[in-house]
Structures are given as C-alpha cells and as structure tokens.
Amino acid sequence: MAEGSSSIKTNLPLVLPSRTARIWRERIIASVLFLAAISSVLITLVIIYILFSETVIFFEKVIELDQMSLWQALLEFFTGTDWSPLIEPLGIGILPLLSGTLTTCFVALFVAVPLGTIAAIYLSEFAPAKVREVLKPILEILAGIPTVVYGYFALLVITPVLQKIILGVQQFLFPGREEWDYFQLPGFNMLGAGISVGLMVLPYICSLVEDALQAVPLELREGSYAMGATRIQTALSVLIPAAVSGIVAAYILGFSRAVGETMIVAVAAGLQPKFTFNPLEGAATTTAFIVSVSLGDLPHGSLEYQSIFAAGIMLFLATLFMNVLGYFLSRRYREVY
Amino acid sequence: MVKPTEGAVVTQQEPLKKLAEVRDLNFYYGHNHALKNINMPIYEKKVTALIGPSGCGKTTLLRCFNRMHDLYPGNRYEGQILLGADQPRNLLEMDPIEVRMQIGMVFQKPNPFPKSIYENIVYGLRVRGIKDKAILDEVMERSLRNAALWDEVKDRLKEPGTSLSGGQQQRLCIARALATDPKIILFDEPTSALDPIATVNIENLIVELKDQVTILIVTHNMQQAIRVSQFTAFMYLGELVEFNDTMSIFTKPVEQKTADYVSGRFG
Ligand SMILES: Nc1ncnc2c1ncn2[C@@H]1O[C@H](COP(=O)(O)OP(=O)(O)OP(=O)(O)O)[C@@H](O)[C@H]1O
Ligand SMILES: [Mg+2]
After folding, report:
1. Considering its fold, how many domains does chain A have in total?
2. Top-confidence range, A133-137, A241-245, A290-294, B25-29
3. What are the tens digits of pLDDT across the range A44-72?
4. Is residue A114 very low, low, confident or very high in pLDDT (cuts 50, 70, 90)?
5. B32: Cβ below 6 Å to ligand 1?
6. What is the domain extent for residue A317?
7. CATH number of B3-262: 2.40.30.10, 3.10.20.90, 3.40.50.720, 3.40.50.300?
8. Rounded Cα gap, residues B143 and A318, in angstroms
9. Is B99 in the pocket of ligand 1 (CB under 6 A)?
10. Helix/strand/coil (H/E/C) assignment for every residue in B147-169
11. Is A200 a domain residue?
12. Is position A167 within any domain?
C-alpha cells in the first residue's frame, strides 16, 4: 500500500506553469468574456437611444406640419383613434395599432394558454416515456417553423374554415335567408390571424410550462400520491400551485412573443389600421404597420419613416412592461418551495 | 435468517394482534433484486423499526407498503403483504390508491404542499371528495392537536405550510397523514433533516401516536429505534436477518450480523 501511494505521488507534475503567464491568461479570458457580456447591453442601449431620438423627430415633424403644441401632439398620439401618418390630414393616434395588437394577442392567448397548459400537463404527468420522447421534439420543430408560414396558414386554411363555420352557425340559427344576407367574415381578419399566432406560441408555452412542472421537487409529487391522490388531483392541486411562477413566466413570454409577432398578422389580419376590438374585423397591428410601411422605398427623414419609430416605441414599451410584470410575478410566487 | 421468535411474542403483557404480514416478498428495480424473501409481521398499535446499513433495502421495503414503487416503470413485486387483522387482503394486488388511502407516509425531508397550513391538513380529505366545512374543520383541529402542533399554529392557519420551521413542517406532515385516519403510518427517517430538539419532539410524538395508529419507521439512529419502537427488524443486503422485540434485538441478538451491527462494528 505504502509503495503504491508513493509511486502515485511521483507521477504528479512537479513543474507548474509560470505564475505571471497564468495571471495574464486569466485576465485575457476575463476581458473577452466581459466584452461579450457588455456588447449585448450596449446594443440594447443603442437601439433604445435610436428609438427615442427618432420618435422625438417624428413629434417635431408633426408639430411643424400641423401647427400644434407638443402636448397636443402627445395627447393626439395617445388618445386619437385615427392612424394615418402617410396621408393628409395626418392621423397620429396610436390606438388603432394598439387595439389591433391587443385583439390578436388576446385571441392568441385564448388559444395558446389553455391548450399549451393542458398539453404540458399531459406531457409531464400522463404521457408514457415513449410518447414524450416523440412529442417533445415535434413541439420543438413546430417552434422552428418560419412565422410567414403560419401567416399563410391563417389566410389560406384557418380563415376559410372560420368563414364556413360562421356562415353555417348563422344558417343554423336563422335559417331561410339568402347566403349574402348573412354576416361574412372578411378574408383579412384578426380572429384567424390571432388563432394562428396562438398556434405559433403554443409550443413555447407548452414547453416552458412542462419544464416548470418537471422542476417541482419529487418529494411534493410523492407526498401527494402518498395521500391517495390521483394523477389529475396531484397535477391540479399540488404541481400547478408549486410551479406557478414558472407557469406565469411562460404565459408572459408567450404574450411578449405574440405582441412582437409580425408576419402572421401582416399576412392574415390586413394592413388597414382601424380602432376596433372586434376580432371578426381586419385591422393592422403595430408590427404589421411597420412592415407594410417599410416595404416601400422610404426616404430617410420623411414622416412615414419617422412614424415607424413612434409605433416601434409603443411595441418596445408594451413588451418591456410585460417582461417587468413577468419578472415581478415570478418573484412574487417564487418562495413556494 | 431467523424466523420471528415466538418467545418475543409471549413476553409481551397484552395479546398482540397482527395488523399486517409480509410473506415471501421479493422486489425488483428492473433487474436489481432489492428485497429477497422478506417475511415479517406488523403488530397493531406498535412501532416497528427497520434498521440496517445504508443500501440494505429499508426504504424499498417501506415503500412497498404504500405501493410507491408503482409510480415508476420497471418495478416489480413478488409475494404478499397481507393487510387487515380479520380478513387479510394482499395489498400488492389492490388498487394502489385504495392502499394509499389506508396507509399514510411521512418522508425524510418535510414536504408541505404549497398551500396554507389548513389546506395541507385537509388535503387527504379533499382528495376523498369531502367538502363539508364542519368535518374539515373538526378533522383539521384534531389532527393538529394529535401532532402536537395546534397551539403553535392555531392563529396562523391561513399562512403557507412552508412558513413553518423544519420541525414544525415535519409535524405538519404527520398531522396531514393522521387526518385521514390511516391504519398504518410509514416513516422514512423522519428526523434525519431535523435538529436535536425537533428530533426529540418527533420521537415523543411517535411514542404517543402508537396508541392510535400502527407505525413502521426506518431509522439510522439505533438510540432512536430503542426509544420509540417495540419491534425491530434488522436488514442486510436486501434480506431480513432478524426480527424480534426491540429489547431482544439490542441486548441479546441471535445472529452474529445483528450483534455486529447493533454494537457499532459495521454499517
Ligand atoms: N430507484 C431505484 N432504482 C434502482 N435501484 C434502486 C433504486 N432505489 C434504490 N435502489 C437500490 O436498492 C437497494 C436498496 O436501497 P434503499 O434505498 O432501499 O436502501 P436503504 O436501506 O433505504 O438505504 P439508506 O439507509 O441509505 O436510505 C440499494 O442497493 C439501491 O442501490
Ligand atoms: Mg433509505
């Protein structure tokens, strides 16, 4: 034994790398890592600066063109219900874009939150290991489909189906009229777009809720089963309360993605800004407006060009608000286990 | 391998009643043969301790009683665990939920649910579909009193169960198990995560509870086995080496392995 251990000792390297070389290597590594970390912060700050400064220029132009004070312009911006910064007379009320964004998001969450949560509970608590191994990668593939595909899916599949359903329901409830007397769902509508956005965020929500459920400690799960609870009782009354911070964070992230979604709504909801919360109508969302305007050649510095930033800043503030809210909500519920 | 000695049974004052009996029990984690031919009785309203070195299968045996192994695929039981004094039924062939409704469990680490103290206690009743507030209130108070926790928490029943200290949380878990009036409560090293004072409290509680309920406890602490139990089973490498009344196991063990273990020579 003694011989064995001494022979192991002699195998240890006796020459360590030089101390100064080591210190310098550490320093270089630390500064490279620091640069990588700081660059993302810097880029974010630059983006915010550009958004703000271009928005200021937008308001300056509006004030100059319409001969109104800054306060009037801001009031008009936040309360006006007409958004037409490209045509005279100028409409600079942001509400139509916000209502479009909120309506599609609401429809999207209406689809994605219940479906995503149920699917996550199934995957995490009910699915046999084999089923989960197949379904999880499929969910991840769904999350990787380009969103423009979802847009055309809404336009070419969801909306026609919805049109048939809505017509059929009306014919069933009020029979005996000519087909054109019934309400027709327009080809561009926020319902179809919203459902499609919902399908797009569904895999994210499902996957994150599933992660949150899986993260619940085993003792809690077993404690519930040991009391004679069934799987569904355990899932609903122990696991979901235990995972609530992660679940709320999943919903908020889903909402943020829905707010920022561009191609689906641009393709399927139409590009006409309209102040309405009725999902059966078409309307432009904030993001759809931004792409539609920037599709044409925009002279740098024109009011059209500046209006993109004014709309963009609303989008930025909306997602920022949701992310901060999500942060505090998940903090608020964290101390449960 | 020694069969339960009849002598042990005779030395007891009152007549002993078997509440459950393990017969030729084998258990497999997949291909891992973790319990080998276990035979032992569980006497009603007594504390039975399971002792033995780490990895000998104490937890595995305990979790057979409430069919916890059913939660994971690949586990397999063979043999019988008969439950009930008069008309024994093999609980390995019953519906696991039905088994768990009669056999409660307290875990190594306190595991209060993310709910109020009140809701933690009545969880087992809610699971059984009992909604009557009067019944819930009554059972809740009785269970907390039985677990010697009532005075400490009666003014804060709405607070989360996790706001209690570790020892209080463990008594909360005991109260939760008591609330459904189980035939047996299983304890898996219930004090290993607690400080000495909380440990003494839990031990005293177990001693008191044995008048109401049958208890099976896994422990690493031999002093604890002596303090709380009337019967002790010594296990080694998946086998039951010796079962007897606790005094006999610790003062005049029959098997050499048991003697070595209880005198601290290994394990
Ligand atoms: N989930 C499992 N899958 C496979 N083997 C397992 C599993 N759990 C335990 N075992 C094995 O079964 C044997 C008994 O384990 P068990 O947990 O019952 O021991 P124990 O006596 O409770 O030990 P300790 O005192 O350390 O808690 C061990 O050899 C262990 O490796
Ligand atoms: Mg154990």
Report:
1. 1
2. B25-29
3. 999 999 999 999 988 888 888 878 888 88
4. very high
5. yes
6. 96-336
7. 3.40.50.300
8. 50
9. no
10. CCCHHHHCCCCCCEHHHCCHHHH
11. yes
12. yes
CA of B190 to the centre of ligand 1 (A): 17
Which chain B residue has the Cα nearest residue A229?
B127
A309 in any annotated domain:
yes
pLDDT of B156: 92
**Structural domain contains residue A48:** no
CATH code for position A307: 1.10.3720.10
Query: Quick check: A266 and A100 in contact, CB under 8 A?
Result: no
* Domain positions in chain B: 3-262
Q: Does B201 touch chain A (CB under 8 A)?
A: no
Average pLDDT over residues A203-208: 92
- The more confident residue out of B259 and A326 is B259
Using one digit for the tens of pLDDT, what is the confidence trace for B169-194?
Answer: 999 999 999 999 999 999 999 999 88
Ligand 1 atom 31: residue of nearest CA: B55
The answer to which of A159-168, A255-264, B85-94 has the lowest mean pLDDT is: A255-264
Q: How far is the CA of A210 from the centre of ligand 2 (A)?
A: 29
- The answer to whether the beta carbons of residues A173 and A106 sit under 8 Å apart is no
Q: Tell me how far the alpha carbon of residue B30 lies from the centroid of ligand 1, in angstroms.
A: 13
